[in-house]
Amino acid sequence: MPAPPTRDGPRVNEEIRSAQVRLIDQDGEMQGVMTARDALLRAYSVGLDLLEISPNAEPPVVKILDFGKFKYEQQKKKNEARKRQKVIEIKEIKVRPNIDENDYQVKLRSMKMFIEEGDKVKVTLRFRGREMAHQDIGIKVLERIRADMDTQTKVEQMPRMENRQMVMVLTPR
To answer: Coil, helix or strand for 28?
Structure first.
């Protein structure tokens, strides 16, 4: 079996090393198996390039097309894919066990905004001093957040203790 291309991208014209190839013409019609030299002559006769589409097939599949146009289309597809992908970030919201109602509403609004943008939200509830003895209050705050955000989010990571803080991760539905 011939080795796959060593450089980036498919082999073109004289770089095709196989003796026999399966040719597809410029209209997409299968022309059958022939020598690489004959296929190259056909490509040159119509003013186009011979491109190795499937190097690991037996015999390799080659196609007659314009290589410059092919590279341009590939670049366009790559840019389009990059444009469509969204990097999901993790936004952190810090709360305290004895959070005031107005502060809670402000944090809730910012959490909703982050979720609408498609980001994950990490809710960190930090305990100080004697608050560690009242972890049930912290659990109630996180449960309230989970209940208020339940329509837009699902819980990726349930509340758990990490040293002196409790952490919960929410993701968009």
So the answer is: coil
What are the tens digits of pLDDT across the range 7-58?
Answer: 566 888 888 888 888 888 888 888 888 888 888 888 888 888 888 888 888 8
State the Cα–Cα distance between residues 31 and 48, nearest whole angstrom.
16
d(CA 66, CA 102): 64
Coil/strand/helix, residue 171: strand
Maximum pairwise Cα distance, the chain: 86
Say if CB 2 and CB 36 are below 8 A apart.
no
Residue 53 and residue 39: Cα distance in Å, rounded? 13
What sign does the dihedral 122-127-133-137 (CA atoms) show?
negative
